[in-house]
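Lab meeting, item 3. Inverse folding demo.
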C-alpha cells in the first residue's frame, strides 16, 4: 500500500505519495479539479467588489507531477493581500512616469499635477479567500478522502 501525505491550506491542496497508483491519481485529480473550481467561484463571490478587477483575477489551477497533485486558488492583483489581511500603506508621493503630468478629476474640474501626495491608507481585513476556504474545508477533506478510497478500491 502506498503512503500518502495530504496538506490543505486556505488557498492550496497538496497530495503527495512515494508512488501513486494510477486509479488513485485519476480520482484525486478529478476531485482536485472539482474543488479548485468550486473554491475559485466561492472566493470570487466572497471578494470585495468595487470595480470587479479583484474578482476577475482570482484564478485556480491544478498541476501534477509524478509524485504530487496540487490545486491552488490565487488572487493576482497588487492589492489582493492587503484586502485579505488588512494593513497600512504609508504616505507617499506619486509622480508622473509615462506622461508630462498626472491628470485626474476633482468634481467636474480637470486637474494636472507633476506630483500628488497620497496620504496614509488603512485597510481593514476582508478575508475573502480564508472565508471561502473555511466554508469548504470539510467538504474538500471528505471529497479527497473519498477520492483516495475510490482509487484504492479500484486498484
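The presenter then showed the designed sequence:
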Amino acid at each position: 500500500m502506498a503512503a500518502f501525505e495530504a496538506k490543505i491550506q486556505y488557498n492550496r491542496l497538496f497530495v503527495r505519495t512515494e508512488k501513486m497508483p494510477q486509479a488513485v491519481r485519476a480520482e484525486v485529480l478529478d476531485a482536485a479539479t472539482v474543488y479548485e473550481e468550486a473554491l475559485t467561484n466561492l472566493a470570487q463571490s466572497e471578494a470585495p467588489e468595487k470595480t470587479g478587477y479583484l474578482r476577475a483575477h482570482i484564478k485556480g489551477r491544478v498541476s501534477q507531477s509524478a509524485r504530487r497533485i496540487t490545486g491552488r486558488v490565487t488572487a493576482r492583483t497588487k492589492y489582493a493581500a492587503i484586502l485579505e489581511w488588512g494593513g497600512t500603506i504609508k504616505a507617499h508621493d506619486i509622480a508622473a512616469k509615462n506622461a508630462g503630468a498626472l491628470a485626474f478629476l476633482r468634481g467636474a474640474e480637470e486637474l494636472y499635477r507633476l506630483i500628488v501626495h497620497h496620504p496614509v491608507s488603512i485597510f481593514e481585513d476582508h478575508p475573502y479567500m480564508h472565508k471561502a476556504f473555511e466554508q469548504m474545508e470539510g467538504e474538500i477533506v471528505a471529497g479527497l478522502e473519498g477520492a483516495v478510497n475510490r482509487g484504492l478500491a479500484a486498484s
